[in-house]
Design goal:
The chain has about 240 residues and is an alpha+beta fold. It is built from 5 helices and 9 strands. Helix 3 links the parallel strand 6 and strand 7.
Length: about 240
């Protein structure tokens, strides 16, 4: 009888062991199915971080503010500093750089103010992306280098800056007329200021009148600002 009890207990234990084994196998299979189903589901898309929005342009008023104003010298072509709009010479007021005192605003953005205009007690100021303008400038220069004849590149020169809207208009007008010309950035091109001053001296042009941008050198003549009539006259028609 004792041996029968032992045998029965052993068989019960074996059955119990087999049952737990089956359960373990089934649980393992269930986990694999769940994992496979999870893998079939598309991963959630991570949104691309949005580009930082342009900062708000400083309010440029008559009394000044937490910034300095930078403008081109009428004699040397270099950038000078002023604290208030009234300190900027009359001929250099149309396009003035506004440099905030806050260093966090010294990134890729430029603030360009027109001190010749007043709207609700402040001068209109626009925000310009320096890197985008420089990139466009480089691309334009590379394209022109491939199509413009070398012999005529020195006859017409546009002295400009990347942030100057009237410089862009002057270049577009020359292109529309089919005029081959060279551009020199007064902020980025080494020797551009010296070249401009030398040509002005050779042309007998009063250097004190070299205020602001654009400055055009056309066939031995110096033109300041953007004027279609003046350009047509200098080109001879």
């Amino acid at each position: 009888m004792g041996s029968s009890l032992v045998k029965t207990s052993f068989e019960a234990f074996s059955l119990s062991k087999c049952s737990w084994s089956r359960i373990a196998v089934r649980l393992t299979c269930l986990c694999l199915v769940v994992q496979m189903n999870a893998c079939d589901k598309p991963m959630p898309k991570t949104s691309k971080p949005a580009a930082p929005a342009p900062p708000t342009a400083p309010e440029v008023k008559a009394e000044g503010g937490p910034f300095v104003l930078r403008y081109f010298s009428p004699t040397t072509g270099s950038l000078l500093v002023a604290k208030k709009p009234a300190d900027v010479p009359e001929g250099s007021r149309s396009q003035v750089l506004v440099v905030p005192n806050d260093p966090t605003l010294h990134g890729p953005w430029l603030f360009v103010s027109d001190l010749t205009k007043v709207d609700q007690g402040q001068h209109p100021t626009r925000v310009v992306n320096r890197y985008e303008l420089e990139k466009q400038h480089e691309q334009t220069q590379a394209a022109k280098a491939q199509v413009l004849p070398e012999s005529s590149s020195g006859e017409v020169i546009l002295y400009k800056t990347a942030w100057c809207g009237y410089c862009t208009k002057a270049g577009d007008y020359l292109e529309a007329k089919g005029v081959a010309f060279q551009t020199k950035d007064l902020e980025r091109d080494p020797g551009a200021r010296q070249d401009m001053l030398r040509r002005a001296q050779e042309a007998g042009f009063d250097q004190s009148r070299l205020q602001g941008v654009p400055i055009l050198y056309i066939k031995g003549r110096i033109l300041t600002g953007f004027s279609r009539d003046a350009i047509d006259q200098a080109l001879g028609g």
